Amino acid sequence: MRRSMAVRWTSVTVCAAVGLLLAALNARPAAAQELGFAAVAVSPSTLDTGESAGTTSLASVGFGAVQACQSIGAKDCKVVYSVVNQCVALAIKKNPNSYAYGIGPTREGAAANALAACTKDGGINCVVSLAPCGSDDVRFASPLPLPPGGKPGSVDPALVGLWALNVSSGIWVWQISANGTDTSHSEATDGTLPQAGTFTASNGKYTLHSIVSQWDDQGTYTMQGTTAMVMTGKLGTGTWYRIAADPVYGGPASGPAIKR
What we know:
A hairpin with a 5-residue loop joins strand 12 (about 205-210) and strand 13. The longest helix has 14 residues, at about 105-120. An eight-stranded antiparallel barrel has the order 8-9-10-11-12-13-14-15. It has a four-stranded antiparallel β-sheet with strand order 1-3-2-4, with helices on one face. It has a three-stranded antiparallel β-sheet with strand order 6-5-7. The protein is mainly β. It is about 15% helix and about 40% strand.
């Protein structure tokens, strides 16, 4: 995982109880009386992007998204789209530079719409860069939805599901899918960037490739029953605790929410 700010930016060169974690992965609109705003911004020249979410106003989250985009040096950042009580996703593609947005009541729906719009516009190898929702917890960077491009059957079924890792200021959350993709984000005050990419695991060994940053990892894993796994990779050794069997397809929680 890489590090950034709570108001998140990304460059192309480059936790809580079960209910909160599931909501973060598949955010739903807040109640009508509880307005939540989200916005995404982009630099057309560099494809650096920024996002912001909050409860103040569309103008405030738009300003925050532009500031986040500009924080890494882009001079021509602009708001692409802002939403109220919905999710908005931004898909980008380089060579030539192009981008498109999508909106929807869920993060996954907004991301799918953004990818479809990017592809329809002539983009090849489009990637979802940001996907904030109005209902996101503003203390943390918005997670990314599961990406396309995995290989079904390439993941040990024992690893499929939602996992949490204790870190010094909270938890990291990792979702592993049976379709050979994964996504991770931080619900700690460490500013770690969300990641999404492809993932394989079998016979105690795994590989991970991020499609949103320059990050690849490989290592070993050991299951401890069905509710914990010890992973050893580039960042060292850590024990992940199961939160849910499969949050995408509605699997029930099958382990402790977090071992504190």
